[in-house]
Amino acid sequence: MSKETEINENKKDSINSINWYPGHMTKAKRMMEENIKLVDLVIEIIDARAPLSSRNPDIDKLSANKFRLVLMNKSDMADKAENEKWCRYFESKGIKCVLINSRTGYGIKNLDNIIKEVCKDKIERDRKRGILKRSIKCMIVGIPNVGKSTFINSISRKSAAKTGNKPGVTKGKQWISVKNDFELLDTPGILWPKFDDKRTGIVLALIGSVNDDILQFEDLSFMLIDILKNKYPGALNAKLSIDENLDNIDILSEYARLRNLVKTGGELDLTRASKMLTDEFRNNKLGFFTLDYIPE
Asked: Which DSSP string do the residues of the chain spell out, in sequence order?
């Protein structure tokens, strides 16, 4: 077990009990397999706070022999220094990477030119064949809740795709035209059947790619504390003035006192504290963090 994922057996059982791969995801994956032959470019949207954990490994297989573009969405919510390192990592693998924020439009304006650059070989082949105005067909892929629909609405400048703050809003296939140059195929977010590394499941839970109603926030908050202690030592102390040398239960108790989360009778409300701590992480009230490590 790696040092940053030192969690007890009860916590591991909690993560393992989550239904990571509901039935509709099998159908979604099959739909992607059937339609991949229709597209020129696969645009993979990932969460900048978890650039590795938020990538479905199946997408690399599905996208073989296709042009590739990775968009690190929610980049404003992640560690800025880490953002640049991750972009360099993806480009070292031959995949163009761009930092974006779908909600504000950051990084979206120049994507037309970037897409044309990534697909320049296809455009040149068409030109030699006398085809000058064939649109570039792009498949938008990613796991639940990384912001695919918001991205499509932003780049098409209209509410062409449904959006929501819960994973799994997009249910079926839909094509969206963007100017005369591009057509976007939106796809439902899909996870994958089994994680080789339990830490991946923990990170996905923390960034909200798994529905909250199947989580135990007490366990999740302990996992968050473990990750921050190891990857960002001193962050909890700097933001909350809590001694990180304490056990996790004592750190959570101190946090409950700090936020005045007390039940009737004076007992600390650790359940509310757990949810609030997780929410504060998700809303950047604890700082700006990137939870994944760049592979060596």
From this structure: --GGG---HHHHHHHHTS--S-HHHHHHHHHHHHHGGG-SEEEEEEETTSTTTTS-HHHHHHTTTSEEEEEEETGGGS-HHHHHHHHHHHHHTT-EEEE-BTTTTBTTTTHHHHHHHHTHHHHHHHHHTT---PPEEEEEE-STTSSHHHHHHHHHTS--S---SSTT---S-EEEEETTTEEEEE------S--SSHHHHHHHHHTT-S-GGG--HHHHHHHHHHHHHHHSTTHHHHHH---TTS-HHHHHHHHHHHTT-B-TTS-B-HHHHHHHHHHHHHTTSS-----PPPP-
